[in-house]
User: Fold this.
Amino acid sequence: MVPTRVEQLFQQAKTAVKENQFWQAAELYTEVLAVTSPQDTDPEIKEVRLATLRERGRLLGLMGEQVAALHAYEQYLREAGNGVHAVSARVSIANQCRRLGRYDRALTVYNEALELSDSLNYTLGRAQALAGIGGTYVMLGRTEEAASKLSQATLLYEQAGDVPGQVRSLNEKGVAFGSSGQFDKAIDVFKVSLKLAQQMNRQDRYITTINNLGECYRHLYAFDQAIAYHEEALKLAQKGRLRYVEADIRRNLGLSMRELGQLDEALDYLRQALDICEETDNLDMKLHTLYGLSLTETLNNELELAAEHAQLLYDIAEANDLKGHKARALYAQGFVAHYHGYPNSAEELWHRALFLAHETDRRTLLWHIHAGLAEVAANEGLALVHYRIAGEVLRQIAEPIDDKVLRQTFLNAPPIKRILEKSSE
Assistant:
């Protein structure tokens, strides 16, 4: 039987989570661990400890304490035994490795969880492992494989009646679509995810989803909608002290400000995002932020700093074999070279970026690269070829969008309109 004090602390922690008091909840869960022992043999106490270890790790990760979260999950695995908790612990460890940029280990542990789930005939564990593998593939630029794994995961979550799992896998699937420039599909998926997040009253999932939705609108130059989503997300993330997602929100706001020509405000947001990434060991978001920061610093004529950030992005991407981020780094380096007045260097770097952008299906990056190559082309004929390719990619992005206003907003955005006009000459 669970002692009254343990039960009180456990219930207080669960209540704090429901009220989005995440730090308080983490502290209460720590108290539960302090007044129980791994050696307790009572099944009810053991179950409380395992649930506590799992939830405490999740909260620490949300609040940006990535290494502490990993340690919490590793303790969870040590105490989990060989049943479904062992699956959950492995999935949690792999999720945390992914956040820390340890992608090879993440995939290894996800596959261990998948194998154990199969042996236990555990549908939910299989869904969690497949969703994790799919999410890692998104980060590695393996978009088609990612979408396939995430579709399998979503179906299994539905079969298991796990709404939070559906939200997670749908969000990952939306990110996969967005990464390949399929913003129409991404928006549809995020809107389904948003309804589910609202139904289950999980603010952390809601914040993540509206941030992702806002990013889609940002890519489509619908800045009023994008900024509205991101400002709402930022307010909620700050209130809940969710540092992990706050970095991405600030990055998105910075990039919107850049496109609106507000470079000082853009740089403030992006540098704040980078600081949070450093504090929270958020490698993937750090790389996305370095890319945005380098381009923005270039536009602000801070070319040395822009070159440093582009090189850092390249070095980290190269060390971790992250082809999508390496493509962005090469594009950023070419962007700096172009502004420095070295068109030949820019062209060479952009051709290298082009190969990787194709390999990782990065359509948004593709049209930027071809537009850049058109500007540094040796003659008008070659420039026109690049403009036509860029224009075709832009039309592929725009045509599937059912929302006519949104589609026209994208097509009429000055950078897009200019390329489309050039491609028709």
